[in-house]
Amino acid sequence: QVQLVESGGGLVQAGGSLALSCAGSLPFFGNYAMGWFRQAPGKERELVARISSAGSTYYADSVKGRFTISRDNAKNILSLQMNSLKPEDTAVYYCNADLGPSTRIRFWGQGIQVTVSS
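Structure (tokenized):
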């Protein structure tokens, strides 16, 4: 069964930290590019950070320097360390696995709420 399950969300005060994890139950986890997306109420879902199968990372300008994405292929886990959180970081965060555009194979987690209070 293919499944991505996020954990670690919750409520924190501005300036605080929170760590998200995504457990990927899928074959050949290391072959997927992995990413974190988020969607705030009334807004489009946006890419927050991604990490390639080779470990190259990308961050949205809004989170660069504050968030760190990482992966543990041996444990099939994607992580997002979020520091210096701001109220505008409040959103539902989604884990994504993408095998590549040519494969049309991609999966999404169910989403997890992150709320940053002011």
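The chain has no helices and eleven strands. The two ends are 40 Å apart (CA to CA).
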